[in-house]
Amino acid sequence: MRKEFLHELIKSQVGSNATWSAYHYIKGDPYPLILQEAEKQTGVKCDIYWVENGVPSTFTLSAIQGYANRVVLWHSRHLELSFYLRKLFINGDPKEIIIELAERQCLIAIAELSLAKKNGDFAVKAFLKSINGQGIFNPHHDILLDSKLEPIDESYFVAWFYGLAHEIGHAVPLTDEIRNYPFLTDEAMNEALEDALLVFNYYPEHIKKEARNRLNSNKKKYFIEKDHIRSEVIADLTAINILYNSALRTIYQSSNKFDIITFVLEVIIMANLIVLLERCEKMAQYAAKPPVDEKKLDYVLMPIAYYIRIGKIYEYLEILLATFGTNTQKIQKKQMKAAEAVMEQLFDQYEPVIGAIDSGLSNAMKFTFNQQESYDDLFNQFSSDVKSKSGGYFRLQAKEFCRLADSYGIASKQLELLKKII
Ligand SMILES: [Zn+2]
Fold first, then answer.
1. Structural domain harbouring 222
2. Which protein residues have a CB closer than 5 Å to ligand 1 (ion)?
3. How far does residue 196's CA lie from ligand 1's centre (Å)?
């Protein structure tokens, strides 16, 4: 393939201000090992491009004719937002603060992703909502640079590479063998749905019925269809295997003890965050092209689909815990019980945070679905924020946002208004 062709293709996806290059890593970084392991797990070679000044999304370019390698665009902004969100898990902030910050982070993700979809007016709306009246500020420094200096341990592997490994994991095709994994059979998928419907028991009966229909519809266009969920789960499990094998190897080589509990905990956090950012992407998609009729219901059922997916990841982590340290794949009942107990304990510990982050996301989703707040109100609030004592912060954020919008060649009335204020 001609280099210029690939260049044009990437540019069309990431905006004109974005830059991309091979990922630069310092000595000792596990990145090359992860790529090696990824190739072993998937049997596919990947070309990874590290994209800066883009939007929070990591994705694979659709198959390019005459080019066997998969081209994955790994956005620094995707990672950056996941690191901010990860802080919500580990900081131990009060619930109200977690909800507020999660909502703001989701809205900014939706706003930036809306720019990539050329939905300028709504992007401005979501941006204003994300920033208006903000009293708690993320310290303005380079969170990625800071994180690079962290020790290379279980957390480092998962926090840095889960999103990338998930994307690479999509190279694994969904086969009948996978469909017959004990926890992915048709029966297991339907059971998982029934469990989920108990949690989402406030959904009206006719919607629950439609969830069952769509899960078994064999129409992959539905988020909740079983093969659709399985494909995501397989990408997740492949990611876990890539990270587990490479972390295990690295940490053993440095003669440190591999801490399986920390590893599992980090996967729980990152899997939830990657799903969260994916849901923001779906929201941006919804806003750009509001679905009609049966497609609309797909968005209503989306939380159930994600709930099932996360549940499958947890099931796999239990197996990982149960087999850790043994050299047999056959799991003893006793080990499985012990693993379940550990998962339950971790879950109890983090469930309140996951719940709070979910509430923040729900608020951002409601804002996107309803779009009730007027531009006038949002702009009035923003104007007074700009005049406040923290005005510099608001102006700076808005300037960065406008720069991103320009890089996507957005022409929008609301964007012009925003530029006038700053
Ligand atoms: Zn995916």
1. 78-421
2. 232, 235
3. 20
